[in-house]
Amino acid sequence: RLERRLRLGLGGQVDAGVGGLAVLGEDRREALGRVGAGARGDLGGEQAHEDAVLVGGPGGAVPAQEARPGALLAAEIAARTGADPAERLAAILAEHGEPAYARVDLPAEAEAKAALKAASPADLSLRELAGEPVRAVLDRAPGNDAPIGGLKVVADHGWFALRPSGTEDVIKLYAESLRGPEHLAAVQEAARAALARLLGG
Fold it and tell me: What is the pTM of this model?
């Protein structure tokens, strides 16, 4: 995504795990699209690795092979538009909000993890997320149609993903808000409630 690559190109520390920089609302997608108009590169693909089929998450600095495309994209935006990509990104975040992100590990037995892994979007009856209509419930990554191994719920200014760990007795809850920490807490609360309903708790 453009925002992610801009951050990489500007030296930002973007983590690699499920979730991270938001599934953007249409207004935010449009704004980011204006920043990178004419710049080459795949702005929509999702990367898959052991702990992720959605962009972002906890983990540390981005590997060099991921940072290089971001640096090239930032340089190309500057060359084509004559503007500093950092300033343009700052303006977008000022207009649309700074993301707040967190990952929480929820204790879970093997049965609960198996139930989540087997669940489909239809099993998660959720029409509202932290005061906003739910736009999508996903079990596959939009960029490459790879299985998430769990479920992701998307609203205009927030999302969460629930994914069973393959090595620990936990369910990983990833969540992000474009409206700050308080809204993030509401997204997380809604995610826990949805999981409890799904598991019959």
Answer: 0.63
